[in-house]
Amino acid sequence: MTNKIHFPPIIEQMDLIKRGSQEIIPEEELIQKLEQSYKENKPLNVKLGCDPTRPDLHLGHSVVLRKLAQFQTLGHQAILIIGDFTGMIGDPSGRNATRPPLTFEEARENAKSYWEQAGKILDKSKTQIVYNSDWLGKMSFADVIKLSAKYTVARMLERDDFTKRYKTGIPISMHEILYPLAQAMDSVEINSDVELGGTDQKFNLLVGRDIQREFGLSPQVILTMPLLVGTDGVEKMSKSYGNYIGISDSPQDIFGKTLSIPDSLIYDYYVLTTDINPIELKSTKDALDDKTQNPRDIKRALARKLVEMYHSKEKAIEAEKAFDKIFIDKGIPDEIPEFVFANNIKELDIIELLVQIKATPSKGEARRLIIQGGVSINGDKISDVKEIIKIENGKILKIGKRKFIKLITK
Known about the structure:
Helix 10 (202-214) links the parallel strand 5 (194-198) and strand 6 (221-225). This protein has helices at residues 10-18, 27-40, 59-73, 104-118, 133-136, 141-148, 153-156, 160-168, 174-190, 202-214, 251-259, 266-273, 278-289, 295-310, 313-328, 350-356, 363-371, and strands spanning 23-25, 45-50, 77-82, 127-131, 194-198, 221-225, 338-341, 347-349, 375-377, 380-381, 388-390, 396-399, 403-409. It is of the alpha/beta class. It is built from 17 helices and 13 strands. A six-stranded mixed sheet has the order 1-6-5-2-3-4, with helices on both faces. The protein has three domains: 10-225, Rossmann fold, CATH 3.40.50.620; 249-328, Tyrosyl-Transfer RNA Synthetase; 338-409, Structural Genomics Hypothetical 15.5 Kd Protein In mrcA-pckA Intergenic Region, Chain A (Roll), CATH 3.10.290.
């Protein structure tokens, strides 16, 4: 006998599902699926696909992972599809050039780290993990031809990034055309009821609906989540832009980076990266709208919350104390300009560092500043003009009395 699943009422489910969501297509179908699920005591298959292009996750990745976790709390089946096969194709979503594909070994190795970090958000015991090489790798060339016949080139070129590249003469490789079809086959294989993704995945998710119909299945509902803006307040969060907060970052880094986000992003971060309850969320919104309150205090509460989520409450308290010791006790402002270094730069001598970040116009001026005691890192004065500085994310360089620069690594 099947155990009774205690699903919340449909209206409560929809309230949580819609929180922070960008689009639900179509919303009425989702309600129908939830009603049928409730009536039949059968959880929905909620799919999230991920190509493990990098072994490390940041808060931008957490947005859609948290939505998947919310479906888990509602009693539905979370299915995480590791794209070890599609990762070898390279997802062109939102790109104006071909994305370098992974090797199968790289995809599998990155997947291990991905799951370890995703497990900080998802309930591991209730998450089904599958690898799409299990079915895509078994397809013959004849199978691929049959699948390709189910979709037209004209419809594929409706995709924004393909359209832009086609009009500007930037090459589109055939394997990129096949990517949305491969992702759609994932939905067919697991009989997905709902598929989650960022707004940049909307086209791929819609293709999944069409291909499911071609295979005689009920089409999945798609739910897109906004792309989280990074700490620079401009670009989407990405390690490539150096504007990210890593899920596996140290408590001090999570706390410090969170305090560097613009005030205009505080509410979005609360909605998209935390699970605070609706009452607290409204209270936060009211506080941000109250011009008599300092948003810095609300941002500090957010920073503590994020450290607590990925480490512990004790670590959050320690991180705040450490931040105050460096920044407040030594007069360093909360918001300071950043300089992003390339991946291959691990260390520089102090004079070369000052010149590279354009803190001084010449090596001679850099030498003079150091000798006069006008250069410090994280509050520690640099006195040796030959000192080697490790390029580490979040280090604060002070030049003279008022100039501060934060070092950021990709």
